[in-house]
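Lay summary. Proteins are chains of building blocks that fold into shapes, and those shapes determine what they do. In this project we predict the shape from the chain. Here is one chain we studied, written as its sequence of building blocks.
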Amino acid sequence: MRLHRLEITAFGPFATTQTVDFDALSSAGLFLLHGPTGAGKTSVLDAVCFALYGSVPGARQTPGGSLRSDHAPVGTSTEVLLELTVGDRRLEITRRPAQQRPKKRGGGLTTEKAQTWLRERDPATGAWTGLSRSHQEIGEEITQLLGMSRDQFCQVVLLPQGDFARFLRADAEARGKLLGRLFDTRRFAAVEDRLAELRLAAQRQVEEGDRRLLALAERMAQAAGGLGAARSPVEGRPGDPGLADAVLTWAAVARTEAREAVDRASVRLTAAEDRQATARAVLDAERDLAERQARHAEALLRRERLTARAPERDRDQETLDRSLKADRVAPALGLRRDAERAHAAALRAREHALAVLPERLADASAEQLSALEHRLRGELGALDSARRTERRAALLAEERSVLDREARADEDALEEAAGWLADWEPRRAALAARVEAAQEAAARAEHLAGRLEPARRRLAAARRRDALAEDVRAAEERLAAARERRNTAHEEWLDVKSRRLRGIAAELAVSLTPGAPCQVCGSADHPAPARATADHVDRATEEAAYAAYTRAEETRTAAERDLAVTRESWSAARTEVLSPAATAATEEDPAAEPTVAALADAVAGLEREHAEAHALAAQAHPAREALARAGREYEERVAAQREAERRVAARTSRREALDRERAALDEELARGRGEFATVAEHATRLERRIATLVGAAGAVREAELAARRLKEADDRLADAAYRAGFTTPDEAAAALLGDTERRALQHRVDAWQAEAAAVADRLAEPATRAAAARPPADPETAAAAHSTAERALREAASALAAARERARDLASLSRQAETEVRRLGPLRAEHDRVARLATLTAGTSAENERRMRLESYVLAARLEQVAAAATARLLRMSSGRYTLVHSDARSGGKRAGLGLHVVDAWTGNERDTATLSGGETFFASLALALGLADVVTEEAGGVRLDTLFIDEGFGSLDDQTLDEVLDVLDSLRERDRSVGIVSHVADLKRRVPAQLEVVKGRRGSSVRLRTDGEALGG
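And here is the predicted shape, written in a compact code that computers can read:
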């Protein structure tokens, strides 16, 4: 992997776009990255890591933290572009983190999502081709090409010397964490964890099975209550080896005792059943005897009651017999009553009919009345012709009256039509003018509506413009105040930082301990520690000043965003207010810009004109309808006038014909009326007299017939009573009974006879007579004996059921226990096997003599490779004195596997790396870092690492050692590698001609590229 070009924009301390030409720096093979503290040297390396992996190393990638530069302008996006070669592919990666920007519409901020672009250059044409814009696809592609994770890249390519110095002095556990992160041995640790989980799971299953087995044993002890086995239950704990056998043995003993208890209970139940059957037979016999004796006593009592009711039964029977005889006379009695009622009604009708006749006809017979009726009918027939003539005359009079009314109506209609038609032309002209005016108003209203809506929008925009103008002035004032506060806070922070940097040596001297290496030079000797001055400030004060500056900067940025958004809104509102013509006029004369009052007056005027035109236009349809109705009415009135004139002419001739016919009919009517006013009155009088005579004749004949029928009924009744055995008809009528009364008497007679028969049958039963002859029965004594026998039987049955239930429960629980024991066999074997593997891989087994974990065993092999690769460079750096070797020996009670020693060729002794001096620790850690880079590179698939960066630590070397270290680094060029040194050592600026200088300033940092002392770019 070789880096070519890096572009950083609004990232970390860099406010503007900064370009780093790695090709120019790598041409010398060795280059220096230097600059003052806080300038951004580490940010250059962070940008490389961010471009490749989308995140920065270590604690600098804090949750919720921002990579954006605080110095960057509002409109500049944070972006990192890296051009590199991996294998034979030249790639370009561009990344933008998630960041906030002003909204394009409206006010406030919006969050822009993170974006990534990956392009590849065609070596033949030199053209760039886009490969992907997916974060996931690009991340997988880069990781696959490099063969390293982000942590591995940061350790192998960036080579942080402080981490490797701590690695040399660390214990086995700390080394294991670093090596495990680099070589990704999590799968081996996962195997250890998985085996430990399996062991715990298997142990839990075995213990859970033992607990279930003990629970079954406890349930069996409860079920065996009352047996001898219940007094000696199973004792044991989950996990005991002999627990299963003890439970099964105890269960077998309990089942045997339970079966014996069932046999004893069965014998007792058989004896109780025999005693209960004997007592039941005795009780049934006594109850039967008592029942028969009670039946006999009851029959005697019922017979005495029947004897007392015998006279009453005889009277009821005699009454029923006379009623049956009277039934034969009942039809004649009914006919006599009907004839008597009919005769009385006929007499009343005769008297009523004769009362309306003259006195001379009061005693007339039916024949006389009929003769008079026939004579009057002849007179009525003679009046039929005169009645027809009278009806015709009435019709003629009615018709003449109708003609007169129609004539008057037609005369009125003609007069009205003439008056209406005379005013027709002026009315039609007025209606047509009204329609035309409404149409013109509709066109004018449409035109005004088109002008009204834009005017309203301009008025609303003008109001927003004036309000936003006040907001702009307020935002400008807030921004000015925020800038002043930010500048003050920044100057205070820089002052505090400068004061702290001047006294940083005294601050570091506080942590010095005799015999411990210095954090700066690595020396264990501290001859003259620095002292704090009066104006020295501590780190908390600097952090507080920086936090105040950060808050002021955030306030200024927010004020700038608010002002930009408000100005944009004001400009949009102003543009909307100005029409194209008004815009040109305003550019010549700003005072000509329309005010809210002027626009409001214009809108009000347009609204009034539009309302008036709209109200007038609304009359268009009614006006057209009125004109159409008037036209239709004109045509109808003209037609009605012509029809009325035609009817007048026809009516005159019809009136003359009616007058001639009426004169002829009047002569005939005078002859038919006689002394009455009309012929109809004369005929009505005759009809009423005829009807009266007909009714009277009928009533007289009906009365005579009813008298004859009454006499015949009396004769038949007397004959029927005599034949039935009654002296008179009245005696027969008295003997008659109603249906209800007869049914009641018959029911009493039948009930007495049924009771007498039942009593006779009961007293005639042989068994009843025999029971009456025996002594009284005693069922209470027999019932008490039977209850005692039944209670004993229930107790025996309950005892047998309980014994059987206990035997079944013990058998069922024993089968469950046997099943549980069989199920636990494989689980216990699996637990033993997994536990052996888990303790072996965890280093706690006696079989693991070095107590080395599986992951440590794998890492020990890797550490041995790293030590061998590091020794090749350490020998050169130390002039052949030091060699790094891996040690798997145990130290005290700790586990073995990750020990690291240094062999001193001068003394021939092997000692711990923690005993190296500060300078020796530096070049040993550098050799270790370079060796680790080689091993990780081979682990990653042999990807070439043509660009490396080495962090601080050169200040602890003397001149000779520094030359040897630089020779080793310079030898890396033999493999076409370039090495960047990150250092503050001033002597390196003279020794390394290719330099990348990071310069910090108040508006952000920048980079300068120098080769042989001349600037190449910035």
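What the prediction tells us: Residues 581-590, 1013-1018 have pLDDT under 50 and may be disordered.
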